[in-house]
Amino acid sequence: MREVDFRSDTVTKPSPEMLEAILAAELGDDVYGEDPSVNKLEDKAAEITGKEAGLFVSSGTMANLISILAHVDRGGEIIVGDKSHIFKSEAGGASALGGISYYVIPNNSKGLFNIDDLQESFRDSTNYHHPITSLVTFENTHNNCGGIAISPEDLNPIIDWAQSHDLPTHVDGARIFNAAIKLDVPVHKMVKRIDSLTFCLSKGLSCPVGSVICGDSIFIQKARRIRKMLGGGMRQAGILASAGIFALDNMIDRLTEDHDNAIKLAAGLETLEFIDIDQKLVETNLVFFNVTNEHKEKLNLFLESHGIKGGSLNSNRWRFATHYGISAEDIDYTIQMVNSYADTI
Ligand SMILES: Cc1ncc(COP(=O)(O)O)c(C=O)c1O
Asked: Nearest-5° angle of CA 39, CA 43, CA 48?
């Protein structure tokens, strides 16, 4: 039976060429700074993002945590969106491990913030009752806001606000390459005005493991120390970094295929009565839709019995992520199966 796994772009497996690159990797001890593949990946990431330096880490969650700890002292506070991954899905790490509080403000439908909300969240640093506002964080693409790609122009007012309050900015760019491809803007332009970013190699870029933090050299030096403190120093990590180098060279442009597949899937689902989806809101590789209460469980079981995984049973809101492991034929098959389900009603 055909298997189509829409649960996440993290389920991607390395291509045969990526596995060859892994086998051929030059290795050393990265905690001594001697792994040539890790060094090459970090330099390449810095170049692509237009930042001074990069740091290879094990996951997106660790990348965001290290970045926050490098920007903010204990007793500081960060501004986060209520739908952001940092706030919702990273186990409160900055608070638990860094003594840092979160000031949560609403993400609008585009994943952005209102300036009034930002202003409201800003603490008076002369008032010793308050924590110290220390960082503004964004997400791009914004997962929970539908995989929206946020353009530099859209971000400008927020960055203007942050800079006028002397606040550094950090972007969780787990899928920043999806945003860059969608907007046809190089990543270095997307993040030019942002102080630090993280991006994931292990999502649409199909690597088995890893994320990279990019920023100025002093920030990355600090981040390197924190990575060690968290037990994230890896030894012959070139095994993993070589996949990252391969991905940055070969897996970025193909993200358009995932975006095209997402749009095709959305178009196929839009015709069905028990599914509520707006195709126009599908911008990158994430397809969100609502399934009516009556059908959500039955549809899920039907799809699973035909090898299709995805969605969410806890709510009516489902997410299907397209990625390197899903072909145009898999999309046709999925649409066909959802229609077969409709025929059973
Ligand atoms: C927007 C976003 N940021 C960060 C992460 C964390 O990445 P990881 O699973 O590698 O910790 C994810 C993972 O799904 C994500 O979607």
From this structure: 150
